[in-house]
Queue: 4 jobs
Job 1
Amino acid sequence: MEAKIRNAKAIALKNARLDDPFWGRYTRLVTEKLLPYQWRALNDLVPGAERSGCVENLRVAAGEREGRFHGYVFQDSDLAKWLEAAAYSLTWRPDPALERQCDEAIELIGRAQEPDGYIDSYFTIEAPGAKFRNLRQGHELYVMGHMMEGAAAYFDATGKRRFLDIMCRTADLICDKFNTPEFSAAYPGHEEIELGLFKLGKAAGEKRYIDMARAFVERRGVDPDWFAREEEHPDYVTVWGRGGLDRLYHQCHLPVREQKTAEGHAVRAAYLYSAMADIAFEYGDGSLLHACETLYGNIVDRRMYITGGIGSSGAGERFTADFDLPNASGYAESCASVGLAMFCRRMLTGTGDGRYADTMERALYNTVAAGVSLGGEEFFYVNPLEVWPESCVEGTSMEHVKPVRQRWFGCACCPPNIARTLAGLAGYAATENGEDFRLDLFISGRYKTPMGEVEVRTRFPFEGNVALKIEGGGGRLALRLPGYVRDYAVLRNGERVEAELRDGYLYLSGPWDNDTVEYRLEIPPVFVWADTRLRAAAGRVAVMKGPVVYCLEEADNGTNLSALTVDTKAGLTEDYRPELLGGTTVIKARGWRDVDDPSGGLYRFDEPQREPAELTFVPYCLWDNRGPGEMAVWVRRG
Amino acid sequence: MEAKIRNAKAIALKNARLDDPFWGRYTRLVTEKLLPYQWRALNDLVPGAERSGCVENLRVAAGEREGRFHGYVFQDSDLAKWLEAAAYSLTWRPDPALERQCDEAIELIGRAQEPDGYIDSYFTIEAPGAKFRNLRQGHELYVMGHMMEGAAAYFDATGKRRFLDIMCRTADLICDKFNTPEFSAAYPGHEEIELGLFKLGKAAGEKRYIDMARAFVERRGVDPDWFAREEEHPDYVTVWGRGGLDRLYHQCHLPVREQKTAEGHAVRAAYLYSAMADIAFEYGDGSLLHACETLYGNIVDRRMYITGGIGSSGAGERFTADFDLPNASGYAESCASVGLAMFCRRMLTGTGDGRYADTMERALYNTVAAGVSLGGEEFFYVNPLEVWPESCVEGTSMEHVKPVRQRWFGCACCPPNIARTLAGLAGYAATENGEDFRLDLFISGRYKTPMGEVEVRTRFPFEGNVALKIEGGGGRLALRLPGYVRDYAVLRNGERVEAELRDGYLYLSGPWDNDTVEYRLEIPPVFVWADTRLRAAAGRVAVMKGPVVYCLEEADNGTNLSALTVDTKAGLTEDYRPELLGGTTVIKARGWRDVDDPSGGLYRFDEPQREPAELTFVPYCLWDNRGPGEMAVWVRRG
């Protein structure tokens, strides 16, 4: 691979100060709402929310309190993700009080850690004799991986080594244990340790940890029956019951290079593919990179919702089959789109190919952004493309779909995942390689780059103009040209210039001296159709503007959105509405509404009439901020 | 209620000899395939099928074998239903060998019965100390109810009292036990005993049993927490786990007269409503009848599939909400449509209103008939309106949908239910009240009626002519005029006559003397639309001919049925094809197929093209007899 790509890195958080009209609301939420709210939740201080028990568990594990473990077996990871998010926020908003909270939490983790480096309060409290004996369900490596990610982030943000040192002891334990003959073929049931060991290895300068991450990736699926056989060990303790191993669910049906389709639990899969990308680029492994590209292609061409959601089945929170993407019953877990963005970020960094940025952007501006309310205290775990509240009945096949965001969840992996993604958003925005600066997402801010400071000003995604000022230096400026842009222009110091288009980026060369660049992207509202094999979109159309998927809501269009048909011949109009949903562009279409006599019986021999109707679309990521009601992304077309 | 209606009864099976081109295939299957095959299955003699253990359990309960109970807690009911089906078949096809099998099975039941009358092999073998302590899950009363239905049927068919006497001892036990103070508010978790006690009471001339059936109906939901409190008893033993009582699921959220919507598990609901109808008519209870009418209306107007299927959620096998009838993920259990037909049969008998016959017919000619393959050895448990085999993946939200019929099921309630319905089909076909004869379904055969023999000849549902010959007597002949018939004529001895239309029936008066009646029904193929609130049918249309719902299959139309749009302006043509699917009318339409470039990406900015296409529809009940493939009832309209 080219040297330039090999040196590429996502921009360091401390080298970016975002100040964006679209994302600013979300990033402000991190420090104003998400971090304080989640801290209270983890400490069981939120009235009306399901109890977390996360911090309390660690106190019990540390021997400071009596009690039983509470919550899911992976509860510790909520604190790890909180620390990661907090660390990221400290890079752009120093906060001594927050930093003290973090330091105290880290100390608690240190006390809960066992002398050999083991850290996982569930097993420490409830099943100390069964450590690593249930890799399928135990989530120990998952917890440790998230702790490692938190430690690396905190070290990067503050320079403090305490968390790093704690987790290096854990990593040492893992490197010892998982290279013994007994565990030499073992791999985790929920991928994550691979990502944590990689980050920790980079932060601590320990290649051993990165080699261990690689080993976990390489071993996966070579022995597809590990999770069945571990049940035979006398120390095995079950968490959710024995038997019934589903290899696809755990992506252990085949060695990773032989996996051609995205299978199983979507979050596990996305984390695995992200780790595969880490390893492929680290070791220059062409066959592993090829596997990543194959899996990426399967997702993007056949198994991804238009909103960047992945996981089409509520049961199993998983992939199902090519082109099977049901609108109402789908899953599209917030965590899974975070994972998809992570995977794309790595592929983008490693290859410089803008198509990965298109997908990363699609996931971030839609499913990930949809995951949190405007108020910042309610979250979606499941992100369907069509919601009809009356049909979301408890005890039925739709009970996984909550038609309104929830304050907290018993299984609370999504809110902290959203928080760490928003807090670390700048890392998705740009790339640099010591010479060049590449703008991957159109997010306003000031970036410290090889060309000095680059200031970016834009009102994207509501407007397509991006204004840049480049301080100096000789490197190249690469501006992403998204796949959805039909027309664009680049002006340098007011003059139109031609730029070289390579792999989805427009390259402008230096030298620079306080130059201004104006990048004009045409991003009108457009209709979008799906491949005819995507059955859930047959006879339907969606509306997008730039990367933003739009939807109908009951608040604007009345009940029974299924009665509406949009006239794709009549065009779309857009209108920025500052007072609506925190300020957003609304898109309108013309069409029809079916009408019939409600007393005519359920099945009839006469076609319904239809009357002209105006259809109003709002961004999918802003839905459910005006009270419960129907929503639909794919609308009948006629 | 009118005296005429009060005396009405479904025609006795021994008074009907069916010989029908449509149903003949199914009824022949009963004796040629279903009964022998199911007998082998119940005796664990079918290679490749899931083990039943049914007969073996009874041998163990009788103390004749060692062993543990095998199967679901209600496994005994499979034999009861088999006996009921066998009994019905003996009324129209005497078979000494079959009768001997029945007698032996009945003797075994007698030996498995405990001295106090208790009969339920699960509890006898596994939990004798917990009898009636888990009414929610134990299914004892369910088993006993089916045994009672079998006993009444066998007595009616053969005159033999043995089974009747066995079950009268059980009924005596129930009447004693459930009138003690401790159990005076109790009712079963799965309704069925109400139906069994009623039938047994009628057959044995014991009003006490009918009063007990009434009591179970009246008590239901008066104490909505019975199933929660029974868990506190020291003798309580769980079957599927404690807690999590869902009152809607068990229709015990309210007393039955206060229930306005069809809720919960669809089979339980249908059996309850059938029992409510039995009791309402038996006791002349107007308020209970009103409750039946309300629930019937809610089902037919808001919660029933066009195929007469009920139960829209795989999870819980249950009703969900008004107008929520998803096509692919729905449930529409075969047993539930049997239950709906049972409910309608009772309402029809009691009120004489033809709309109940329309619904009964819809369920029988579609979901119930679809439940068994042409070969008679494969069954559908779940009857969706749209199937795409690739999406029916294990471990996902679609795993309840099997895209092909199965040889047997671990939970085998449906095949025996289908068998007893087909064996007793004549009971659905006509009604008499000692004076008049009413033809409710158009099924060829010879009926013994108050007007002597009435012979019916028809090729319905493929042709709309029904030819009758009435032997003699003075009563009235009532011919149902289905709601879907637009045009008809009645000829008597070749001359057109006007007949009085009342409650959906055309009445012709006697006297009769070998008169011929020709009843010509116009039943062309037609398009059918749904109420616009039925979201799953928005922008779609179905095709029917008479009561038969049609569907597209992959075998005729290729893959990806969602790419097809039917032109509702272009009309439909029909064509009887004797060589296809055992002989059936095929319906053709014109329309279009979407085409696009498969390499164009999953989401695109260009609309697909479409090319003209011919669409071929076959009866829904005959789908999946030509190998696995896609199927769809609701087709895009344009």
Job 2
Amino acid sequence: MFKYDTFRKVIVFLMHDAILAHVQNYISLSKEEREAFLAVLTLLEVPKKQRIVEPGSYIQNEYFVVKGCLKGYYLDDNGDKHIIQFAIENWWIGDFDAFYNHVPSKLHVEAIEDATLLAISYDDLERLFLTIPKFERYFRILVTGAFISLRGRILSTLQKSTKERYLEFCRTYPNIEQRVANYDIANYLGVSAESLSRIRRQMVISP
Amino acid sequence: MFKYDTFRKVIVFLMHDAILAHVQNYISLSKEEREAFLAVLTLLEVPKKQRIVEPGSYIQNEYFVVKGCLKGYYLDDNGDKHIIQFAIENWWIGDFDAFYNHVPSKLHVEAIEDATLLAISYDDLERLFLTIPKFERYFRILVTGAFISLRGRILSTLQKSTKERYLEFCRTYPNIEQRVANYDIANYLGVSAESLSRIRRQMVISP
């Protein structure tokens, strides 16, 4: 029992370390502020293939990925899947629209690998903005980056070859190509799995 | 001369009133904070068809629309235009990627009507964030809304009929349908001008 507790404490410490390192890339926090922030985070272990967001549900949390890989996707009326986001270490994932606007989610968010997440609830986040306003800056910078990246992805589909878009994808999600199925990457890029396989083979031969 | 000065002061007062009303929907400002904010805004009168952002250029400003209507678009290698944003009263427009990341712009931003804008420079905005941090909140809320709306637009193209997407467009940009050419709205929605005209005619008959 003692050993398990100690082990658990080490794990929690490492996870807290990961998110604090990320936050402190953008804002500096005092010891009290770090503690107040960590106090509102909830640890979540999500096994591979489990979903943390389902369409039609009200979303209480946004999730910071400490370890693992997840995908956010939309199923259309024909049952076709459209992957709109991956999340790896140091990304936030959830359904912003459902989270901020209190409307039912339209998305699925599913773990591709066993994942360790830190969840923050809407109420806790709003309280955090009031008590430690510099978190406004952290999230403003992150969401501005997400907006730029989403708009960039739209421009890329108009402008760039599949190979260029695949390289861009590898830069956005470093090393993810080993962790995600070929057909999921193809789906995200909006190309057939065959085209993507061909491009990946060519790149091995002439990178 | 006296009369012109008075007239000009009234105009500036009304414009400042418009942007303050918008900002104060999200954050409250003291008299000193309002004055500090207004002091970094530059008035800009842009005639119809003039561009305020050109691809390849470095972007110093973001623009708040006091009056008028603008479009942001991308020209692909074939010279085809892709409209990615309109802006009417109380919207901000520019090229976020170029503005925040100091890279050359990829977009054109052009006035569809004579427009009155208030510009803020990158340096002034960063200073504003330092001196009056609540502006972090204002821009965080705006950019979160822009992100949700952009992602919603992507889901809509997967999910909704052209008629539903046109109605959504009219809700996003109230009364804009009288101000923008049919082919520009069709371009934004990614449909042919003929389809859109047919839908608009049907809606007049059976709204």
Job 3
Amino acid sequence: MKIGIVGYGNLGKAVEKVASLNKDIRIVGIFSRRKVESTNPTYTIEEAKNFKGKIDVMFMCSGSERDLATQTPEIAKMFNVIDSFDTHAKIPEHLEKVGKACKTANTSAIVCCGWDPGLFSVMRAIYSSIFDYTECFWGKGISLGHSNAVRKVDGVIDAKQYTVPNPKAVALAKKGLPINVAKHFRECYVVANEKKAEIEQSIKKIPNYFLGQPTSVKFISQKELDTKHNSLAHQGNIYSYSNIDSDAFSSHFELSMTSNPLLTAKILLAYANAILKMQKFNIYSALTPLEVPPVWLHDLSVKELTKTLC
Amino acid sequence: MKIGIVGYGNLGKAVEKVASLNKDIRIVGIFSRRKVESTNPTYTIEEAKNFKGKIDVMFMCSGSERDLATQTPEIAKMFNVIDSFDTHAKIPEHLEKVGKACKTANTSAIVCCGWDPGLFSVMRAIYSSIFDYTECFWGKGISLGHSNAVRKVDGVIDAKQYTVPNPKAVALAKKGLPINVAKHFRECYVVANEKKAEIEQSIKKIPNYFLGQPTSVKFISQKELDTKHNSLAHQGNIYSYSNIDSDAFSSHFELSMTSNPLLTAKILLAYANAILKMQKFNIYSALTPLEVPPVWLHDLSVKELTKTLC
């Protein structure tokens, strides 16, 4: 597979690293807005058009969701694309925009393909079809969305927010019981020079993110934030449960990573195989992982996979 | 969904029980070779042909694999069918026979749709596409195949075999290390009147099933076997792992059930939704769960599911 990488932040570098360990993948180019250095060839995003027909799948790795919202549909007019778009509320719009580009250009796309949304979406779809109860927990790990919400508070210089599952909620989920406590604790580490009491109150009042949730705020130095709170580790758990009379059924899926971008890169590379299948079957549209049959994730034929995996 | 049930052993009764708890499902009939009693209408298998066009999906619940090997393709000539065929070596042949019947009759089928093969096959396909290492463990639970192998030994009146994961092997799998010990212990409970030492030796020498595996044999009375070793509980675990330099990624999927047939029934009913989608899209063939996109497991539209599950 010949691949291109658009964006060269944490995720772009992770895709480069994972791809370079796979001898069946060749990195044709890294495309970035700013000048970047790599052992692989680097180009500006504008130069991408010169590679039409020379790249099988373009990996969209721009840092912000705002970038992906415009770049993925734009690049899909020339290349098959895959991204890990994760602004939940905007997924339907994103799918539609990318799908429209694919239809006009006979390209194929898979979007929202990280660990959540992505792998976790697939697990939720399967477990919730079998079990009557399914609950997800995230963390312990740094949440980008919540960290950004804290950073927007007046007076905050920098901040990180850890999402931490509430053990009481997890204990209820394991038994398939309704969760009547907060599912997650919100631990904020904040850099600020003044008005600390006010900042703490403002954070705790942010609706959707912190209001009504057990939130702790600790003020630390920029140096401490940079050195002690820069972990890319994350974790997720899905608990499912059903019972019929005295019989009970449960499943538990646990995912752990020391590097969120490296795992996202591994998931993107697995689902890139599905894009080649979409091209083979003339499917010129944008799908989420929810629509991808598991066999498409592998190079092997259905016959061989059935023998090996069934 | 209007369903029929062919076979009225443990699994047929489980499908009836799970289906009767779902108000969107109507049991049109139970079809059995022998005369059976139920609160639902019962018929002979020969009478099934009278229900052509009146049943959306026929649930193939015959006890033995030998029955399914002939019944599923036969019934697929008249109805959409789903089964949990699990004789690993014969899956390709079964798929082909059922698929051929579907093509001639414009019906759709999903086969090998229990928890393993079935749900576990899907999990293996997904995890093995992302992670470099994937290991499965089964049990503690009674294995039908191994129990049957013991029963065939000369002098054995009855027997049950528990498959029990070896904790040392599990510890290696959790770390993504090669497994250089036996993965499972084999605990046999045997009813026999004489030649017990010979029987024990014969069991331990059965190739593929027990030879070279840590096997214990305990002789007990028929009464003890019937009362203490009739549990339908089972469990399965899948460990996946990858590392890149000092970064590590792992997943663990654990499935537990107090009733193997009831969970199989729940899985069959979830995947029956996919058969309706196959009919909608004119897919007249036999698939395993490996080829089923997760969205097909639900009634809702792709748009609604993307909103809810992504």
Job 4
Amino acid sequence: MKEVPVGNNIDSAWTGPERVVLITSVDRLGKSNIITIGWVMRTNMDPPVLAIGLSKGSYSCANISRTGEFVMGIPGLDMAAAAIYCGTHSGAAVDKFKKAGLTAVAAKVVRPPLIEECLCNLECKVIATQEVHAHRVFFGEVVAHWSSEKQQRSLLLVGDESGYETVHAEAGFRLGAVANS
Amino acid sequence: MKEVPVGNNIDSAWTGPERVVLITSVDRLGKSNIITIGWVMRTNMDPPVLAIGLSKGSYSCANISRTGEFVMGIPGLDMAAAAIYCGTHSGAAVDKFKKAGLTAVAAKVVRPPLIEECLCNLECKVIATQEVHAHRVFFGEVVAHWSSEKQQRSLLLVGDESGYETVHAEAGFRLGAVANS
């Protein structure tokens, strides 16, 4: 084993695939936003709690910090272009639901909307937050769970090696799924 | 979309693949332990910070809570059986390095050892913790980074659908990789 410098890039260690999810939130006027993220993990089974990591400078981070609520939507393969769009634009300037062609549906418990096109939507209430340098991690307890009839493979951030099917590559991101062999 | 009950199982939403990592720690006597986990995410780029989620009842959780240090080893495909072993036994009772046939190598900055067989080892110092019901999340800043010459695909928790190569299935876990197509 050889030592390598510690830097802002541990990608050599952190090879794909990585899960991709869409997070909805609302601002102080009630306007909905969507952000695409890859930093997400489960942190408890019952009740289910999910952790998500967002840049502190993002509009979604400000929204969730203020309201304590978000919805996690799990996108299928057909949402790759929408996911890239929502991950590379700021909701401060645009209506991402409209621009990405996604449909907001009222949630049951929280104010941020579900995304109709997603395979699954998890309504979450923030039970804790943690500052990590330029990022904030929100721990969200799942308070309602919605499932779609859609049958699709989940969207992943993939590499360019064999075994993956790339469906959309843009802005340095390659989205796709594990290839059906 | 239809609502489904919120429960201890969001697996229908949280389909594979999931990253698998090995975490080393030391107890109060300096004895090393290894635990295999799937709850891990990046939470900052520079400096690199990783979050890991452990059951509060685990020996490793007690070790890391006491010392504030851990090493994250990223296993390759040939370590599937060792990963299952380390994830299904308690270090309170056995020497998991010995039982799993893994080699401890002294780290540079922290007391927990590197795992020689891993593709990569990241020495981490805990900068924050968060209680989440039955689990504790540790935020570890990477303070040293070691890379192996070994060329292998990373080990993943995989499903039984096509596109994956299963190399070891035991105790309800299926470990493998994205298949080379």
